[in-house]
Amino acid sequence: MASDFAEVVSRTLAASVRLHEQAQTSSVGATVAATELMVASLRSGGKILVCGNGGSASDSQHFAAELVGRFERERRALSSIALTTDTSILTAIGNDYAYDRVFARQVEALGRAGDVLLGISTSGGSRNVLEAFGAAKAGGLTTVALTGRDGGVLGAAADIHINVPSSSTARVQEVHRTLMHAMCELIERELYA
Q1: Chain centre to alpha carbon of residue 25
Q2: Phi, psi of 142 (to 5 degrees)
Q3: Which of 14, 46, 81, 108 is surrounded by the fewest CB atoms within 10 Å?
Q4: Taking the model in full, what pTM does it have?
């Protein structure tokens, strides 16, 4: 049994490494462009709004926490809000409107022209994230999609699309986290060199 377990762990790590290596060539340019937008927004007094579902909701919270708290440098807090955290807002909007509107309504309330909305979806088809992009564009925000598979409708709707082309949700999430950590490192470096 232990050797079977070890084989699964080894296979999982190898698959993650392969997808990370693929991202080194396919995702770097878009990640840099997205980070430059975020830096410009934060420099001008803007904020980063982040949303996603399931594991991507968790990643949204992780990204916002790294900016508001700190990533690796002691510095002032950076303005970022995960739209996935307030259960009263989420359930009220889901109940009174529709679950598709849970992020869009928050973008309408909190977003301002010059802010950036980062939408995370491993499928690229999350309807509520797509609705948030519509609200963002109407409000003058810039949109960044962090997706898997072929990027789907979300990737096509984004101003900047960072795609990790794999159908494995778990592997995509692993690369998403690495790319978000790279963004956090660059944001801190650029704002607090």
Answers
A1: 19
A2: -95, 140
A3: 14
A4: 0.97
